[in-house]
């Protein structure tokens, strides 16, 4: 698929050290919630080159009129160029691609397990499901060190109140380093946490996104709980 040009609307902070970039969506651009694209930027030092590219899950849902990507702002050449983009700047997208999309059997619940910025593909899925009022149980297990690090936490809490089939189980594991109030869970996202959170669900399918080490550990934890690999879906995570 040929690259499609996009134009930046604005960017904003969505957590400590995490930015969201809002682009105009090209006419006719379609994707499935949970998919990703390569975001291609022009290197100011080498404008004649093919450009720098990085894969990102799409945070926005298909019904929205923009493409949104969120990422930790690490000190890399790519991230420095991305951070410096002014409103109106152009970039390009190549895609969509990826298969971390919601299964179609509405009788089977979906359990999303996200660590940190691994939340991005699940934001698209939950936003679209809430708009479509899908008759399917969706549970998000979302682990961060502190509320300050939890991108889109306020929106997720609001979606839980507005959409009866969506439930959020968020945990903050280093509250001793936080300056915010938190009345929720502080336990590690381990086998005990998963078992307790999923107790009322029948035959769910699990989705994993986050740092590679976290995804591997969660898969092993689920296997230890008797979950078959056929009921676990994950991909190399896009967004760092």
The radius of gyration computed from the alpha-carbon positions, rounded to a whole number of angstroms, is 18 Å
> How are strands sequenced across the largest beta sheet?
4-3-6-1-2-5
Number of domains: 2
- Report the portion of residues in β strands: 25-35%
Report the major sheet: 6 strands, antiparallel
Q: Topology, please?
A:
Elements: E1 4-15, E2 18-24, E3 36-41, E4 52-57, E5 66-72, H1 77-84, E6 90-97, E7 110-115, H2 120-132, E8 138-144, H3 153-162, E9 166-172, H4 191-197, E10 205-209, H5 212-224, E11 232-234
Parallel strand pairs: 7-8, 7-10, 8-9, 10-11
Antiparallel strand pairs: 1-2, 1-6, 2-5, 3-4, 3-6
Distinctive features:
240 residues, Elongation Factor Tu (Ef-tu), domain 3, 6-stranded antiparallel beta sheet, 5-stranded parallel beta sheet, Rossmann fold, alpha/beta
Explain this structure to me?
The chain is of the alpha/beta class. The chain is 21% helix and 31% strand. The chain has 5 helices and 11 strands. It has helices spanning 77-84, 120-132, 153-162, 191-197, 212-224, and strands at 4-15, 18-24, 36-41, 52-57, 66-72, 90-97, 110-115, 138-144, 166-172, 205-209, 232-234. The mean pLDDT is 94.
Summarize the structure.
This protein is 21% helix and 31% strand.
């Amino acid at each position: 698929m040929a690259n499609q040009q996009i134009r930046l609307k604005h960017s904003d902070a969505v957590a400590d050290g995490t930015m969201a970039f809002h682009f105009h969506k090209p006419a006719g651009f379609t994707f499935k919630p949970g998919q990703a694209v390569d975001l291609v930027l022009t290197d100011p030092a080498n404008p004649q080159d093919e450009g720098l590219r990085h894969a990102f899950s799409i945070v926005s849902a298909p019904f929205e009129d923009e493409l949104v990507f969120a990422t930790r702002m690490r000190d890399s050449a790519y991230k420095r160029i991305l951070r410096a983009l002014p409103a109106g700047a152009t970039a390009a997208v190549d895609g969509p691609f990826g298969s971390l999309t919601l299964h179609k059997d509405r009788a089977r619940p979906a359990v999303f397990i996200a660590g940190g910025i691994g939340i991005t593909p699940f934001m698209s899925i939950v936003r679209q499901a809430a708009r479509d009022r899908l008759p399917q149980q969706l549970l998000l297990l979302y682990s961060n060190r502190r509320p300050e690090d939890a991108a889109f936490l306020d929106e997720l809490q609001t979606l839980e109140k507005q959409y009866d089939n969506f439930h959020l189980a968020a945990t903050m594991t280093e509250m001793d380093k936080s300056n915010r109030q938190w009345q929720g869970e502080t336990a590690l996202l381990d086998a005990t946490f998963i078992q307790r959170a999923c107790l009322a669900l029948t035959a769910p399918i699990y989705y994993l996104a986050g740092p590679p080490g976290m995804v591997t550990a969660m898969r092993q934890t689920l296997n230890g709980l008797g979950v078959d690999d056929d009921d676990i879906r994950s991909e190399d995570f896009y967004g760092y």
